[in-house]
Design brief:
Layout (H helix, E strand, L loop, with lengths): L5 E7 L4 E4 L5 E14 L5 E13 L1 H9 L5 E14 L5 E14 L20
Parallel strand pairs: 4-6
Antiparallel strand pairs: 1-3, 1-5, 2-3, 3-4, 5-6
């Protein structure tokens, strides 16, 4: 038995990149950054940042692209997936990414704070 579920709360590291598969399924790729802060033994502050690549498909991908920009805060839910490829130099490469199933708006980032929605513009959730 296994269970592959992940929840991440972070900020977008770049604007989402929307594209379409040959069958016209939307695909959005984006990066998330999550910070971890702690107090060091010497009284100073320690900080670690974790960067994660994410991908989402379908109508949710289009909605995500429409309402999120670099710096946006978002909560995503999905599963870990593992990519492998051969680099140009012939070496084997691999990395984990998150295949996102759903997302939740968390708040406004600095870049969204001044944005107002157009009359009749609805949020997809």
């Amino acid at each position: 038995m296994s269970y592959n579920r992940i929840f991440l709360l972070g900020n977008l590291t770049r604007d989402p990149e929307l594209s379409y598969l040959p069958n016209q399924t939307a695909v959005v790729k984006f990066g998330l950054a999550m910070n971890h802060k702690w107090k060091k033994a010497d009284g100073g502050q320690g900080e670690e940042v974790c960067f994660v690549d994410c991908v989402m498909f379908g109508k949710r991908a289009e909605a995500f692209n429409k309402y999120h920009k670099k710096g946006s805060a978002v909560l995503v839910e999905g599963r870990l997936s593992f990519d492998t490829w051969t680099a140009q130099d012939g070496s084997k490469r691999s990395k984990h990414k998150v295949s996102v199933d759903s997302f939740t708006f968390v708040g406004q980032s600095q870049s969204e704070a001044g944005r107002t929605r157009e009359p009749g513009e609805d949020v997809p959730f």
